[in-house]
């Protein structure tokens, strides 16, 4: 195409020159001779169309020459390299502005944090977080600091919890350090060796080996590096030592363990264990079973024969005996067995908790009775005799005849002694009449509060009462005279037998046997000559109770109504007159009985002391109340407990003897001092 218009040709030339100028603007000359660094920065900013902020401390001259033209990216890297040579660095801001500062201050500025996808390049200041998987960053960080430009703003920081490195510096240097970390972070050959001990205890062996390693290298490492320090763990169950680490470190530990695991000159090891709480004699039986299981497991499940002699002997290698005088155990065993038995003893020889068991027995009785009767008799024709009157007419007639015959009143006295109520009648000729009457009204309230303290899983009994004689037999001669009687004594009162077991959550399982017995005041009809009648209330049970709570064990509510009529047929049914030929007995009784229980766990001495103080103070208060009341004894004659925690009261005579003895000791000491002073 031919351009004929002159103006058009001039415009085309101008456009071509403009395009050529833009092409030339993409390349820059990098030659500066003795130029001020501030002018150099301004020139670069103008060429790259960048806003650059210069720190006031940035001063100096630069000399640099380049014979090649540089594109924009090369020109920017040239700019960074020149500043690095003269000790300065560029920090890019979020708004695109560049800031020139001293290199040593760049690491505390807002330099970018990069990762593997965009690591940065050249002399650009960056920070990179490098995770390390197989090597300790504490050991690796000092090595990297030697390779970093620390004077020029580089820095390496390690963070132990995450095992990561924080590397700051120029991108090229940081990338080189990351490559070093990648090559160093290799998993070592840390295999596991298990050493089965024959003679020594695994726990003791590990403690000894670790102590030797610590003494050999106070810094905690072996062969100059913690990475070469093996890990040594004891397996108490199999009496083995487990070693993991680098091959050289493992070999060293294995040799040490083999040398230490040697048989003793004597067959076994003897130790004495002084028990603090448990009984040695009872502990022997437990340890026998444990040692038998240990030996059977060591022999692959085979049984072990028990040897003779004191204690327990298995295979001639183990013996357990108790010394009751010192409450100690004497054990001879191989070290591995000894270690297991020692653990068992430590867990069993503990202070056992105690349990305070308080019982409350409440009983209320109320009864009304009425006995009324008339009996007739004739020596020729017989008579009526009613057993519900407790005074049979036949016996009264026989006693009357004995009195008429020889004047003896023994039979009458015996009858009168066994009868309660009023009896009236007559005996004349062949006829006799006896009228009896008795009205009773009984009320009885019983409150018993037995309490006892015992160990966990230990049976305890509490018994308060009296022994009542009971005739169980008699021997008579052929003439009827009584030669002797056989007497047994029966204990009546309050009895409490309890076995507590402390469970989880401060609950107590109680096996209880509670009994309250007494001699009945009223005898059953026709049993006066057979001995006393006993009232017995018994509870035998097992309950689960929370410590400090009161629960009811059981109870009885009993209402009884009894009516008994004895009469002469036909005559006893006549209105009004029939009362002369019959005997009536009416009885109404009510009885309520409840038994309560409350356990309290005593785990320490302070709780036990507090409960003891409460019981002691209550009893002392009752004594003081009794002493304040009028009676035959004056107040000085009444014995009162001292306050809780004070010494027991001493009688005046004993106190005078103590004071006299103290004065004699003081006089003797004074005379000795005078004698010594006179001889000096």
Automatic annotation (TrEMBL):
Highest taxon, organism lineage: Bacteria
Residue ranges of every copy of the Type II/III secretion system secretin-like domain listed in the record: 437-603
Segments forming domain GspD-like N0: 31-100
Polar residues: bias regions: 667-680
Residue ranges crossing the lipid bilayer per the database entry: none
Compartment annotation: Cell outer membrane
Biological process per Gene Ontology, one example term: protein secretion by the type II secretion system
One Pfam family here: Secretin_N
Cellular component GO terms held in the UniProt record: cell outer membrane; type II protein secretion system complex
Record-annotated NolW-like domain positions: 127-190, 193-263, 270-354
Protein name: General secretion pathway protein D
Organism: Aeromonas diversa CDC 2478-85
């Amino acid at each position: 195409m031919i351009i004929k218009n002159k103006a058009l040709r001039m415009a085309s030339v101008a456009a071509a020159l403009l395009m050529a100028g833009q092409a030339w603007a993409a390349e820059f000359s990098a030659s500066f001779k003795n130029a001020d660094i501030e002018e150099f920065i301004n020139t670069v900013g103008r060429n790259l169309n960048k806003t650059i902020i210069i720190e006031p401390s940035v001063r100096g001259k630069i000399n640099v020459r380049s014979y090649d033209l540089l594109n924009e990216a090369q020109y920017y890297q040239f700019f960074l390299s020149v500043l690095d040579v003269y000790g300065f660095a560029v920090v890019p801001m979020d708004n695109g502005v560049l800031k020139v500062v001293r290199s040593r201050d760049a690491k505390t500025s807002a330099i970018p944090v990069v990762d593997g996808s965009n690591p940065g390049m050249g002399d650009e200041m960056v920070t990179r977080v490098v995770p390390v998987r197989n090597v300790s960053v504490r050991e690796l960080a000092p090595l990297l600091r030697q390779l970093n430009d620390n004077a020029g703003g580089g820095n390496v920081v390690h963070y132990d919890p995450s095992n990561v490195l924080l590397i700051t510096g120029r991108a090229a240097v940081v990338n080189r350090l990351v490559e070093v970390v990648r090559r160093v972070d290799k998993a070592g050959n840390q295999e596991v060796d298990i050493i089965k001990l024959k003679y020594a205890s695994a726990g003791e062996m590990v403690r000894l080996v670790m102590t030797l390693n610590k003494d050999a290298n106070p810094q905690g490492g072996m062969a100059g590096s913690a990475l070469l320090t093996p890990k040594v763990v004891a397996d108490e169950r199999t009496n083995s030592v487990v070693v993991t680490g680098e091959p050289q470190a493992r070999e060293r530990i294995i040799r040490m363990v083999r040398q230490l695991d040697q048989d003793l000159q004597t067959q076994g090891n003897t130790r004495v264990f002084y028990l603090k709480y448990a009984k040695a004699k009872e502990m022997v039986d437990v340890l026998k079973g444990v040692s038998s299981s240990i030996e059977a497991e060591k022999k692959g499940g085979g049984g072990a024969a028990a040897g003779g002699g004191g204690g327990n002997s298995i295979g001639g290698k183990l013996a357990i005996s108790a010394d009751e005088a010192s409450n100690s155990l004497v054990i001879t065993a191989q070290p591995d067995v000894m270690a297991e038995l020692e653990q068992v003893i430590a867990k069993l020889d503990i202070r056992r908790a105690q349990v305070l068991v308080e019982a409350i027995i409440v009983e209320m009785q109320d009864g009304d009775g009425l006995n009324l009767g008339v009996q007739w008799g004739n020596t020729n024709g017989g008579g009526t005799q009613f057993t519900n009157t407790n005074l049979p007419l036949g016996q009264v007639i026989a006693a009357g005849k004995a009195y008429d015959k020889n004047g003896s009143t023994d039979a009458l006295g015996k009858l009168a002694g066994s009868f309660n109520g009023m009896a009236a009648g007559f005996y004349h000729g062949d006829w006799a009449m006896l009228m009896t009457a008795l009205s009773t009204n009984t009320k009885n309230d019983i409150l018993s509060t037995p309490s006892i303290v015992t160990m966990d899983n230990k049976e305890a009994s509490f018994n308060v009462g009296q022994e009542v004689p009971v005739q169980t037999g008699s021997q008579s001669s052929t003439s009827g005279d009584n030669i002797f009687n056989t007497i047994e004594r029966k204990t009546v009162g309050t009895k409490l037998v309890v076995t507590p077991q402390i469970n989880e959550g401060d609950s107590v399982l109680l096996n209880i046997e509670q009994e309250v017995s007494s001699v009945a005041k009223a005898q059953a009809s026709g049993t006066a000559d057979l001995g006393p009648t006993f009232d017995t209330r018994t509870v035998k049970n097992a309950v689960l109770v929370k410590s400090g709570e009161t629960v009811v064990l059981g109870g009885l509510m009993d209402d009884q109504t009894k009516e008994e009529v004895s009469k002469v047929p036909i005559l006893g049914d006549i209105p009004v007159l029939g009362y002369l030929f019959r005997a009536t007995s009416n009885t109404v009784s009510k009885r309520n009985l409840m038994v309560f229980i409350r356990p309290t766990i005593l785990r320490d001495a302070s709780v036990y002391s507090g409960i003891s103080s409460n019981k002691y103070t209550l009893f002392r208060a009752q004594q003081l109340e009794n002493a304040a009341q009028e009676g035959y004894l004056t107040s000085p004659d009444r014995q009162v407990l001292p306050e809780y925690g004070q010494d027991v009261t001493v009688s005046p005579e004993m106190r005078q003897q103590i004071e006299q003895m103290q004065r004699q000791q003081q006089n003797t000491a004074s005379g000795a001092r005078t004698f010594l002073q006179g001889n000096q």
